[in-house]
Amino acid sequence: MRLIVLGAVVALVVVPAPVAQAEVPPIEWTACGPEHPGFECATVTVPLDHDHPRGAATTVALTRKPATDKARRIGSLLFNPGGPGASGIEYTWAWGAKMSAGTEGRFDIVGFDPRGIGRSNPLRCFANEQERAEFLAAGPIFPYAPQQERPFFDRYRSLASRCDQPIARHMSTADVARDMDLLRRALGDRKITYFGTSYGSYLGTTYANMFPGNIRALAIDGVLNPELWSSGRQIESDRVAAREVLDEFFRLCDEAACAFGPDSKRRWEALLASVRVKPIQLGGEVWTYDRVIERALFAGYASEAWTDIAATLDQLSDASAGVSAAAAVYDNFFDANLGNMCADIEFPRTFGAYRAVSRYAAAGSEFGPYWWWSTSACADWPVNSDRYTGPWRAATSAPVLVVGNHFDGSTDFRGAQAVARQLPNSRLLAYAGWGHIAYRRSQCAIDHIHAYLLNGTLPAPGTVCPANPNPFLDPAHQLGDQDFRRSTGPVAGR
Asked: Where do the segments described as Disordered lie (predicted)?
């Protein structure tokens, strides 16, 4: 059945031909401003199409926190936080001091907004934030009733024409990897030192396979299986991963007697049955089935938020049972997320195929359709001819550190295990706890990542960092991430 349903999704392996090398762009650093002390900013010009390095150009925006130990400076540490669509500049401003301190001040910590994102000639599918909000409000977050499916599919597939701009035709991960190698040269590094989280793991894996001889150190955390992602089969993971984390949420909630317990799993199933029939009014807000699913999905990202999530679900459960209880700045995360994903992946083209895969997704868990239906924006979107879809088994010039959490609702542990098998020169580090990205919540993992980036020291084979205490019993012990980005639409960030 899986072969039948997913047959329309599987893409052919496309190995791009070698391209001419672009000229190294000059970088002129200036202070980012008083609101970001200690950081410098710059913009560089890169080819829009690396097949034509002397043709049209686009821009990539950068920031850096210069090395503080200049006498022992190693080079630059490039960082990508994921998305696709998240700003590497914003996250570097948030995490740069932590990375610099953890690596003894011996790197310039460099973040960049990949092409089409944030400050880098961004893809904008709407005139303003209000217009995008109206588009999203015109339907559910994802279709959860049969009569919603066709209107949702037609509305989302219309985004291909709405977003048809030159940058949208050159936003594949392979394009970003080529930009990254150009940045490596512009920064003066013979080989790259890179740290990527979530979707940034896919960028790192792509770079490692396209430029295997250019690796000094490459660490990826919250890892996507590139064989699933590039072929459009990520739903095989998404349909089960979030529910695996939610089952842990229920187990630990009941163990700690949290607000949603006791018997939290039974209360969850009763809540879903109720809200599917009738929306819930709570605190002046209307909670529909799709909104409740989205709220619970957040448990797969941030274990430090579990107490708050449980409180919300408790209030919604009581309400369902009849118990009382200015102009926006344009953020192109939603647009860029689709721009990159649709450039990379050959998704189905017909409504019938989408509906068939949706049934497969729903059979995995209640979260499957949430992840699947937003990709219908790609139904009429042309893939980038320069995308990279494998092979994924290159022998890199230095070992790759692969980090995965046992319970991660967005990039499940199986993705890290797969990449560790695929890359022959790699080492797997596990965190036995809950949440998205070990670097956000495990001091053990943080220390191993810093030691590896600094001097190439790998954890011993089979190393597993212990889980933090039960988040319901000791929420203060969770490191968390105050800069974690929530979705700006029905596509949650990776």
From this structure: 475-494
Q: Are strands 285-287 and 400-407 parallel, antiparallel or unpaired?
A: unpaired
Looking at the structure, give the CATH architecture of the domain made up of residues 30-123+168-232+389-466. 3-Layer(aba) Sandwich (3.40)
pLDDT for the residue 417:
98
Between CA 295 and CA 313 the distance in angstroms is 8
pLDDT of 329: 80
C-alpha closest to that of 246 among 271, 282, 209: 271
pTM of the entire structure?
Answer: 0.92
Give backbone dihedrals phi and psi of 466, rounded to 5 degrees, phi first.
Answer: -70, 150
Position 474 scores a pLDDT of 77
Whether cis (ω within 30° of 0) applies to the bond prior to 34 is no
Nearest to 335 by CA among 374, 369, 308, 365: 374
90 and 336 in contact (C-beta within 8 Å)?
no
Specify the amino acid at residue 458.
L
Contact 353, 381 (CB under 8 A): no
Q: Assess contact for 147 and 113: CB atoms under 8 A.
A: no
Here the tokens at position 343 are 């450039």
Beta pairing, strands 285-287 & 280-282: antiparallel
Size of the chain in residues: 494
Residues 390-416 have pLDDT tens digits of: 999 999 999 999 999 999 999 999 999
